[in-house]
């Protein structure tokens, strides 16, 4: 993550341990790096430990500890084992970032039940398994959990019924666990980002230039988000800088979910997207 964008003071997570699912790539890598550079030990948990190489290098470069753990979040027994190993290594877990997910574009009528189930298993059931196991460890001493959602949890979106349903469940889980665990000093929030650039998203969601342009055209601020921008919000919600925020879903989407104009075209010159051309002359 870039130095210039952070509002969070150095050492904010000193002595803390953060468990980040999918922490070796994309948004997870940005969040792990930022939390590590702010002082946290990082438990990076995902299926392929080869995906953790960059984070391990950054840990060595910037002086934070990384426990690289092979974990499929769909397997409750594995989740239990990795959480136990993390606690044995670092003593406790203070921050959990539920970031791992899978997604692809498929119209509902062409989506096989297996495909629907696979996404629900990772992006919804996995979030529950990890939250439950880590929540049990946070019971004494509190902690913060940040789940990664997506705006179509609230709006729906043609082509991603599997992911929309999973993320809607994650938002319901965020509010429910926030209410259930508040008395234990555990805050639970979610960040709901619009399209931001990662290799995974580009490969699965906008694999051609034409598709990328179509997505871009839906974003009023005229550009994709970055992992740094989204990651900063995630770290803010995970930090002691937001002690009274729990059960919240923070949207960061460049206006992606704002409504379209009543009518398109030049009528009254209502532009949804930020113009990249010179502005039209004011009406006389
Ligand atoms: P990404 O780089 O593909 O990250 C997904 C991560 O999840 C990978 O590190 C992957 O690691 C891990 N993972 C996948 N299945 C897993 C499993 N069964 N068990 C454990 N880990 C698993 O994608 P990203 O774009 O950064 O997305 C990160 C989060 O942001 C996701 O929750 C996504 O839904 C959300 N999001 C993304 C966008 C976007 O435009 N990029 C927009 C809205 C929301 P392994 O392969 O090693 O398992």
Structure summarized in a few sentences:
This protein has helices at 26-37, 53-62, 76-90, 113-138, 152-155, 161-181, 199-204, 209-216, 227-238, and strands spanning 17-21, 41-46, 66-70, 95-98, 143-148, 186-193, 249-252.
Task: Give a written overview of the molecule.
The protein is an alpha/beta fold and 284 residues long. It has a single domain, classed as Rossmann fold (3-Layer(aba) Sandwich), CATH 3.40.50. Helices cover 40% and strands 13% of the residues. A seven-stranded parallel beta sheet has the order 3-2-1-4-5-6-7, with helices on both faces. Helix 2 links the parallel strand 2 and strand 3. The longest helix has 26 residues, at 113-138. The termini are far apart. The mean pLDDT is 93.
Estimate nothing, just give the exact number of structural domains. Answer: 1
CATH superfamily: NAD(P)-binding Rossmann-like Domain
- Ligands, ions, cofactors: NADP nicotinamide-adenine-dinucleotide phosphate
The helicity comes to 40-55%
Task: Using the CA coordinates, give the radius of gyration.
Answer: 20 Å
Query: Could you report the average pLDDT, rounded to the nearest whole number?
Result: 93
| First and last CA, distance | 47 Å
CATH architect. name: 3-Layer(aba) Sandwich
Order of helices and strands: EHEHEHEHEHHEHHHE
Counted by DSSP, the helix tally is: 9
Strand order across the largest sheet: 3-2-1-4-5-6-7
